[in-house]
Amino acid sequence: MYGGSVMKTEILRLERVTYRRDNTTILNNLSMSMMKGDIMGLQPLETYGLEELLSVLTENPPLYFGYVYYMEQCVNAWNAARHERNRISVIGTRSTLVGDLDILTNVFVLRPGFRQERISEKMLVRQLQPFLDDLGIRLDPKTTVDRLSPYERVLVELLRAVVAGHHLIIFREISSVISEEELKDLHRLLRHYARRGFSFLYISMHFEEIMQVCSSTAIYHDARIDMIIEEDFRGKSLPRSYYQDYYNHVSRRLRRCRPDKEGEEVFSAELLSDDLKGFAFSVREGECLVIQNMETRIYNRLVEVLTRENDVSRVRFAFRGKQEDGIRRRKMAVLREEPGKTMIFEDLSVLDNLCITLDHKLPSIWVRKKARDSVREEYVREFGTDICSRHTMDLTRIERLRLIYMRVWLEKPDVVFLLQPFKGADVEERYQIFKLQEMLLKKGMAVVILAVSMGDSLAIADRVIRLASVRERLDVKEYRYEDFPKLPGYLPWVDVYDENMEKEPVL
Amino acid sequence: MGDRMGKNQKYLVNRLYLFCALLFLFGVVMIFLAETGIVQGRRAVIPGLFLILALFLAGGYRWLYRPYRMLNEQFSRFADGYISLEEMSRTDVLLSPEMERSLKQLDSMNNATRNLDLSKRQAQYRALQNQINPHFLYNTLEGIRSEALIAGLDNLADMTELLATFFRYTISRNETLVTLEEELDNCYTYFKIQQYRFGSRIHLEVLKDEEEWNTILHCRIPKLTLQPILENSIIHGIELKMGEGTVTIEITRTESRLLIRVRDDGVGMDHRTLEELNARLDSKEEEYRESHSREEGGVALVNVNNRVHLLFGEEYGMHVYSMENTGTTVELSIPAVREQRKP
Lengths: 507, 343
Fold this sequence. Notes:
The structure holds 2 protein chains of 2 kinds.
Chain A: E1 10-21, E2 24-35, E3 39-44, H1 50-59, E4 65-70, E5 73-77, E6 88-91, H2 103-109, H3 121-135, H4 150-163, E7 168-172, H5 180-195, E8 199-203, H6 207-213, E9 216-221, E10 224-230, H7 244-256, E11 265-271, E12 280-284, E13 288-293, H8 296-307, E14 315-319, E15 322-323, E16 332-335, H9 339-342, H10 350-355, H11 369-383, H12 397-411, E17 415-419, H13 427-442, E18 446-451, H14 457-460, E19 463-470, E20 473-480, H15 494-502
Parallel strand pairs in A: 3-8, 3-9, 6-7, 7-8, 13-18, 13-19, 16-17, 17-18
Antiparallel strand pairs in A: 1-2, 1-4, 4-5, 9-10, 11-12, 11-14, 14-15, 19-20
Chain B: H1 2-8, H2 12-36, H3 45-79, H4 85-88, H5 97-132, H6 134-150, H7 154-172, E1 177-179, H8 180-198, E2 202-207, H9 213-217, E3 220-222, H10 226-238, E4 245-253, E5 257-264, H11 271-282, H12 286-293, H13 299-312, E6 317-323, E7 327-335
Parallel strand pairs in B: 2-4
Antiparallel strand pairs in B: 1-3, 4-5, 5-7, 6-7
Helix pairs in contact in B: 2-3, 6-7, 7-8, 8-10
């Protein structure tokens, strides 16, 4: 020790970490470090090895080479593995709380190291109160976790980590479960706790989001950290060399495809349920409408109402002017969040997965092999590769996405609802999703994107509706294409609209 | 006796002999029991025999298979260039005594080659130093400076003075470790010399942790650590860039480490080049380094990293981060020491 000044503490250091599993190198020569009180961003350009990186950070698995230091102590090394868990919390899109138990039990009693045999609830409530006051939130400690909103769940997980004294807390893609307003509030809390010595690793697929809160950003590419971009060192967006093709493609679309305002209105919806009453929207042929919900509660209600079959008491649908139930008549398709995981039938073949919704168009599809073969050829024509001879489980993430979007493309409904289509997608996947959405629009389908986080939706949008709740009333703001530059500057792609709005469209 | 037994068990081949002998003994006992009919009518014997067999298999897994896998991984690490021959021969288990002897022989041959190469380089360096004759060099530079001053060429005079200061630090001082302050001064000198060439195109910033700065300046680091990194940033980063560029040196001290980051906002490098450079920095293959370093860039970084590894161990060293058209950051981690350490 030298002198009496406060020394910086290195909270985390990964030194040339190489991690192998089943003789395959997953993490390769990865180095990074974080100081106490840092809020560091991590942007994965692809998700390969990300799970393993989190496992290396939290679980200390045997390393092929390298060293891991936590709080300046070597906790894992290639030649001396300890295999004890590090006191690091990961807060992600899925809850790690026990749903049936109340906040108090989750925060205190389930904590490793809680040794009291007789639990005094009163005392625990008293102990929790200062933490709640510190967070600036009002929560009844006896509320069951299942009854919490997604944002409250995130706050309770944060509280649990703080109470447990975890010095490093990792947030993983949190913007896909909480709204923009809630995210701003969470950022405020992160800054508050960072000042008190907690460190945060903030993993997000969007550089613009990371920039709002982080002091530095690690660019994760090919299972390595390529670059640490410091706050004073970075431009407005992620260096374009990493997504040049995607950027060029979007720019070309922005210049070429101005929304066709004269197209026929194919779908309209009028919400009748109490909390969404008065909200109505319509969408035209080949138009992409993005409905961004500033609160997760509104998003959940909207998804529930719009995707439920035959719920005439809460919503009224009209297709090309006629009122009818779209789902039953297959005039409406819904792609759930992360469709590559949630909408593929693993036990069916790839071709069966492609044809599964075609029975109303081609009733003999399951009898006529020729019809199925032509579907297979159609896929090859669109994407250039034949995946039908492979097993469903062997498909890559991008092939899975293509399979699902192709299924909808073949079905050709009037309107397609996409629920958070960019959730969990890395740069390459986002580019593919963008192209797949373009494919649907070119076929004349109307696309409605429902999201809490704008993500890359703005790149494909022709119109944006932002929904917020102001004093218990629904506040609806609509942005037409020419108004996009007026959207908040931190949203991804707004700067590209800014640039392109000046230029003449290329016809 | 126990020690000798333990030493014998270091070799997998001995363990295998012992395991086979015990297995053979077990087989003989089994046959004997079956032949004599002792087991007939005694139900407890059969589960007992199965238990002994299970113990054999568990022992085989623990004493043979697991160490074999560990040894295999160690060989794989060596083949991939992660560990040196010396580290590899330091394992708890080896295949046979002959293998141990061979490894030692290989290591000593390798050391002999390395020592030979080192002494050759040292001799070349000394010869160069003698040829240069520092006093003659400094006197000459001083002479040029005086002539320049008389002729009114102030820039030339300053440049000559800077060059003399730079050489005085680089050639004449023989310490292994110097203070960070001295190393930073040398960086400023080098930077000023480069500024005569680049003009206002290059900038240097040193980010200071005001509270710790005084302590940081007195920390000891290997001599000529910072200047080669700075040179690398200017030559490979800023020089190739259109317009102005900045090199930022950031030094942070933690309880145990001194972290030095030299970043430039130059041209950066692509993902593949970065991967190769970091692999070269961490590779233990001396020959690989030698054959590649002459042809490719980054020699200075590899040399600095080698010296840090030799002085402080494998836990410390250098890592490069870079991104095309954004810049490069070289991060050096060394222990925070104030006293002179002998290598």
